[in-house]
Design goal:
This protein is an all-alpha fold. Helices cover 70% and strands 0% of the residues.
Length: 302
């Protein structure tokens, strides 16, 4: 019941839009002249005298009223163009809303010319609707031209499906549109909905698509930060006593990237194990001193 009431309200809204009286060419030209005069008056208002400002404000109000009249008289054009782009993906009222924005933009940019206003405004209305279709794509942003082609394929597919009584194949759509079937398949592939990486693969499972693409390899930023930290540590180690420096380098893998145990370090240097351990303790204490540790504060604190 609620859906029926909503649909009825939609139909009434669209009917109200299409009941505005159309303007003749002389009427349109007069409204456009008033709009242009109002725009010029806005530019002159900043330097006008008090007496001139009163007159200019009246011209500006007349221009605003003319804008509203020109927009109201061309709402039927918005509905007509929106029907050309109507498909199940985007509600019809959303298309009308975007088309109205394009119509207002056309009125705001209008200049005096000899042609019919509808031919001028149609380009603005179509462009805003095409941009809406392009924005609807989640993962990949399509250009307005490609988005228009995709939605035309969808509309033709719906029409062919209704006439044949079964889902239209790419070949049947291609025959109707007189384009290659491969083009139809490609445009149809662009209309498939994207799948979020955090969406579970199936009900009851916690694994998602991102699980299969995740990597334990460090990012380029992490590699750069690690290299920077290594260089700073080597600079600090160079300030220690020679024996302390070599002990820490062997213990923490600064040589050949292979950390050695205390026994292996003592054996490598040909010194007693206790001397190696005591030298390591003294060196670490020196590294922890603020005179050295502050040099690493960018890596120690977030």
């Amino acid at each position: 019941m609620a859906i029926q009431i909503w649909q009825a309200a939609d139909r009434k809204y669209i009917k109200d839009l299409t009941q505005a009286d159309m303007l003749s060419l002389p009427e349109e030209q007069e409204l456009i002249r008033r709009i242009c005069r109002g725009r010029e008056a806005e530019e002159d208002l900043t330097t006008a005298s008090p007496r001139e400002a009163t007159f200019l404000r009246s011209v500006i109000r007349e221009g605003e009223q003319s804008k509203q009249a020109l927009v109201s008289a061309n709402l039927r054009l918005v509905v007509y163009i929106a029907k050309e782009y109507w498909c199940s993906k985007i509600p019809f009222l959303d298309l009308i809303q975007e088309g109205c924005l394009g119509l207002v933009s056309a009125v705001n940019h209008i200049r005096i010319f000899d042609g019919k206003f509808s031919s001028y405004a149609a380009a603005y209305i179509e462009n805003t609707i095409k941009v809406l279709f392009a924005k609807e794509k989640e993962a990949v942003r399509l250009s307005p031209q490609v988005a228009t082609a995709v939605n035309k394929i969808l509309r033709v597919a719906q029409s062919v499906t209704q006439s044949l009584g079964h889902p239209a194949s790419p070949e049947e759509i291609a025959e109707e549109m007189r384009i290659p079937p491969d083009t139809v398949r490609y445009l149809q592939s662009l209309s498939y909905p994207s799948v979020p990486l955090d969406k579970p693969l199936s009900e009851g499972e916690e694994e998602n698509i991102d699980h299969y693409f995740s990597s334990e390899e460090p990012s380029p930023e992490e590699l750069v930060e690690k290299q920077d930290l290594r260089e700073r540590l080597l600079e600090l180690l160079d300030t220690l006593e020679p024996l302390e420096e070599i002990v820490l380098k062997l213990r923490f893998g600064f040589i050949d990237d292979e950390p050695l145990s205390p026994d292996e370090t003592a054996e490598e240097l040909g010194i007693p194990l206790e001397e190696a351990r005591w030298t390591e303790i003294k060196a670490i204490r020196k590294m922890r001193h603020p005179s050295r540790s502050l040099y690493l504060r960018d890596f120690l604190y977030d």
